[in-house]
Design a protein that fits this description.
By secondary structure, the chain is an alpha+beta fold. It has helices spanning 11-16, 61-81, 127-141; strands at 24-27, 31-35, 45-49, 86-90, 106-111. The chain has a 5-stranded antiparallel beta sheet. Helix 2 (61-81) crosses helix 3. The longest helix has 21 residues, at 61-81. The chain is globular and about 40 Å long. The N and C termini lie far apart (45 Å).
């Protein structure tokens, strides 16, 4: 089946353009990282390249290379900020694989021994919790 074209009205494109708010923890000229509003665990962060692509399948390899370095930076920062035991990185491609927002992004989720992940796109977190968590990550990133 041919891949559907990128649609710049998706919610992450709107966040990147500043049309809707997000709890940002990091940004540079290539990448933005912000808190997931329906976290699968405390500190769940999304790392999003500014360049448009639906997902990994249609992305420019140079963009993937740049964004994965920032995934590492954010993974190290959330591990420290939340004193986590580990970090899960997830990335979904197309609806059949669980993708719900069609702009490439990587999930970075602090993990704790014996604590299961919460449901994907489950409960909405309170804005004050998201902003407190964003502050913790930003403090580590300096
Ligand atoms: P995926 O299923 O990989 O496409 O993941 C999309 C993620 O975006 C889910 O984990 C959602 O909780 C999250 N999400 C949806 N809307 C927003 C939003 N406005 N701000 C931050 N995260 C969002």
């Amino acid at each position: 089946m041919p891949m559907t074209a990128y649609d710049d009205k998706n919610i992450f494109a709107r966040i990147l353009r500043g049309e809707i708010p997000s709890h940002r923890v990091y940004e540079d000229d290539q990448v933005v990282a912000f808190m997931d509003v329906m976290p699968q665990g405390a500190g769940h962060t999304l790392v999003v390249p500014r360049a448009p692509s639906r997902n990994l399948l249609d992305a420019d390899p140079a963009v993937i290379g740049g964004v994965i370095a920032i995934v590492q930076k954010i993974a190290r920062a959330v591990k420290e900020a939340f004193a986590a035991d580990g970090v899960t990185i997830m990335q979904f491609n197309e609806a059949a694989a669980g993708q719900t927002v069609f702009h490439l992004h990587f999930h970075v989720i602090p993990r704790f021994e014996g604590v299961a992940l919460q449901r994907h796109s489950g409960e909405m977190e309170k804005p004050e919790v998201l902003s407190a968590n964003a502050e913790k990550v930003k403090r580590v990133l300096g």
